[in-house]
Design a protein that fits this description.
The chain is 34% helix and 22% strand. It contains ten helices and 19 strands. The strands form six sheets. A six-stranded mixed sheet has the order 4-3-2-1-5-6, with helices on both faces. The chain has a three-stranded antiparallel sheet with strand order 7-10-11. The protein has a three-stranded antiparallel sheet with strand order 8-9-12, covered by helices on one side. The model has no long low-confidence stretch (mean pLDDT 97).
């Protein structure tokens, strides 16, 4: 069954869906340009402007492509298609559209009844098929190759920003279409910032350097974090590294279909708490990965969703000590019929550069 057919089967009979979210549009149609997607019985339509018409025709041959024109907006084109089909019920992404956009939709579609799409496309996206899995695996492979390269680049005197640029360039050179997210490089005391922004901080002997990065390949993301040492780290930082590694490996080994996400989170969280660093691990253990870098399911203490084969999740515990530094270790993993399979093959043992 086509993805658009699966979506319509989730809606009341006779209901159309209007998509604004670029990731959902790509998932349903493979279209990557500007515009909206309208899906209904007998309608598979991309609505865009002149600049993207040819690209849309090439990317999604199963869809009709409609161009806006002077005085006729995307929403007005959608309204015309609905009128011609006699459709008066429309599901919208109420989590995406603004108040102003909603006013425009209502003005263009008198007599239409609106209802929330309620994350139905995101629900379809949770479980990856073989093609999606292959794209994520290629993204992870490029990410791992870039890590091996950057371990030979990092040296005292380099800045965080220089390491970030080298990592990003290497992933592009290896075939990535782009970065899955803004690369994080945090040296020394900056490692206590889970989402540190690379800057002019110069790497010094004894520093731990945390790098969180990922390639994007054919629309799908990889996510990996490694922490390395530049010269011999302090005994305290070495101990912290070993605790995080233990937590990461234990949680990764616990992945299994039918297990709750919160149970996986608890495995990592309990290990870190037992070592006295519970207050220094304030984020969830992981999250889903796919077209977006953060997708469902969330591997957190508040998520009781059951893992199923086809889920792609990260396992990324960390310890962050203000004024000292931090350690995070992360793999992207696939949930299989029998357990979990790491998609990032780069070693997690502490590398002393």
């Amino acid at each position: 069954m086509e993805r658009t057919d699966k979506l319509l089967a989730m809606l009341p009979q006779g209901t159309a869906a209007l998509l604004h979210n670029a990731s959902n549009i790509f998932y349903l149609s493979a279209y990557t340009g500007e515009g909206l997607l309208l899906v209904a019985s007998g309608i598979r339509a991309v609505i865009t402007d002149f600049r993207y018409v040819e690209a849309a025709q090439k990317q999604c041959p199963g869809f009709t492509v409609h161009s806006i024109r002077a005085g006729v907006s995307h929403v007005q084109v959608a309204a015309q298609l609905l009128r011609e089909a006699g459709i008066t019920r429309l599901a919208i992404e109420d989590n995406i559209i603004t108040v102003r956009q909603m006013k425009d939709i209502e003005a263009a579609m008198p007599g239409v009844t609106f209802e929330p799409l309620d994350f139905k496309v995101e629900a379809l996206r949770e479980v990856k098929d073989d093609d999606e899995m292959s794209r994520i695996e290629r993204a992870c492979d490029i990410t791992c190759q870039a890590f091996e390269y950057i371990c030979g680049f990092i040296a005292p005197g380099r800045t965080e920003r220089e390491v970030q640029l080298a990592l990003d360039y290497k992933m592009l050179a290896l075939g990535a279409q782009g970065m899955a997210f803004s690369t994080i490089v945090a040296a020394g005391e900056n490692g206590s910032l889970p989402h540190a922004v690379p800057g002019d901080r110069v790497i010094e002997l004894g520093d731990m350097v945390t790098m969180d990065f990922g390639a994007k390949v054919d629309g799908y993301c990889a996510d990996m974090t490694r922490t390395v040492a530049v010269g011999k780290p302090s005994d305290k930082m070495r101990k912290i590294y070993d605790i995080v590694l233990h937590a990461q490996e234990a949680a990764q080994a616990a992945i299994a279909p039918g297990l709750k996400c919160c149970d996986i989170d608890a495995v990592a969280r309990n290990i870190i708490a037992e070592e006295g660093y519970g207050e220094c691990f304030g984020h969830s253990t992981g999250h889903g990965v796919g077209i977006d870098i953060h997708e469902e399911p969330r591997v957190s203490s508040r998520c009781d969703k059951l893992l199923v084969p086809g889920h792609i999740i990260t396992i990324e515990p960390g310890i962050y000590v203000p004024g000292l530094g931090g350690v995070r270790i992360e793999n992207t993993c696939a949930v299989t019929e029998t357990g979990g399979r790491p998609l990032c093959g780069a070693s997690k043992e502490l590398r002393i550069l």
